[in-house]
Sequence to fold (212 residues):
Amino acid sequence: MRDDVPAGARKDAFASDADPIERLTLLLAKLPGVGRKTASRLTFFMMRTSESYVRELAEALVELRTRIRPCEICCNLTAVNPCSYCTDPRRSDECICVVEQPQDLVAIERSGEYRGRFHILHGSISPLDGVGPDDLKIQELVDRVARGGVSEIIIATDPDVEGEATALYLARLLKPLGVVVSRLAHGVPVGSELEYVDHVTIQKALDNRRPL
Fold:
């Protein structure tokens, strides 16, 4: 835990009859990237803001858990099934970009360059964490490719050990199905200075170099 509250006090604070300020603070502190101090500031912000905003926030959280479901085609999280990316007629069915998480899809979309379909794995292969291929949405991807109409798979998993392992596994699985499997290039970020770039990124940049 990131706070210094005794274990017994934490248990009591989560009870429904606990002090509301302490209870909300501890609940907010469980969010990723939110420590005890930030959670406390957010709690007192809720106290100062309008009641209508707090009610709207609470309703949005409940709606998030009751309406959002995985898309039956690409496994993206959506309130409409199939999702808007799968039903958009302006997108090409011939190319599928494979990402680890829904937020990665959003990052790809921000570029404004990609007009194909998506597939979300909801993680990456990580034996140390007990995550294997069967724990991901890999079979759903294989089934999509096997149905035909797909010519290229772009693997856009993270450039870390788990992401690379997942990419290699997918490549071995998908190439026999007759599709081109490509990997999202990694290299030196635009606008950066070479002397401050880490050696792994430089290595990737050299591996993915192209003629001018």
Notes: The CA atoms of residues 187 and 202 lie 6 Å apart. The chain has two domains: 7-67, 77-207. The longest strand covers residues 95-99.
